[in-house]
Amino acid sequence: MKDIRTGLGYDLHRLEAGRPFILGGIHIPADFGPVGYSDGDALIHAICDAMIGALSLGDIGQHFPDTDPEFKGINSMILLEKTMNLVRKHGYSINNIDSTVILESPRISPYMDPIKESLAGVLGIPADRISVKATTNERVDATGEGRAIAVYTSILLIK
Ligand code: MG
Question: Could you give the 3-state DSSP secondary structure of residue 102?
């Protein structure tokens, strides 16, 4: 049997007016966006968190602390690349990724293919090994009221 490891990732960012809306490295037109020390890309952060978790190497905050000026306003695609390098360094490759984005608006379904292609390019895997799903929280709680975006990710690594 192959050496396989699963990982679970989670992230949430507050949404505020006047911020660019970046998800999976893709800019989505909206007059609000995620607040964060980096660009606030919750999908990429959840994926990084899942990769780091699968490797049992702590969490994303330990690897990219929000006290380090290197990461202020950083494009999260760079964090994704660094985390993928960590996966490779430990001898693993990604079998597949599944994510659920919880967001009231804007509608992200028209951007799913570009998001998957953008992630696949950095991760070096085919886009059909990446699943990104979207749901709302039925207007209940902070995400449902449109005040936040949350993402859950699960990942399978194979050595
Ligand atoms: Mg984050």
Answer: strand
Question: How many whole angstroms separate alpha carbon 147 and alpha carbon 78?
Answer: 26
For residue 44, the domain's CATH number is 3.30.1330.50
Spatial contact of 55 and 62, defined as CB atoms under 8 Å apart? no
pLDDT digits (tens, 9 = 90+) for 93-147: 999 999 999 999 999 999 999 999 999 999 999 999 999 999 999 999 999 999 9
**How many whole angstroms from 42 Cα to the centroid of ligand 1?**
5
Question: 92 CA to middle of ligand 1, Å?
Answer: 24
Whole-model pTM?
A: 0.97
State how many domains the chain has: 1
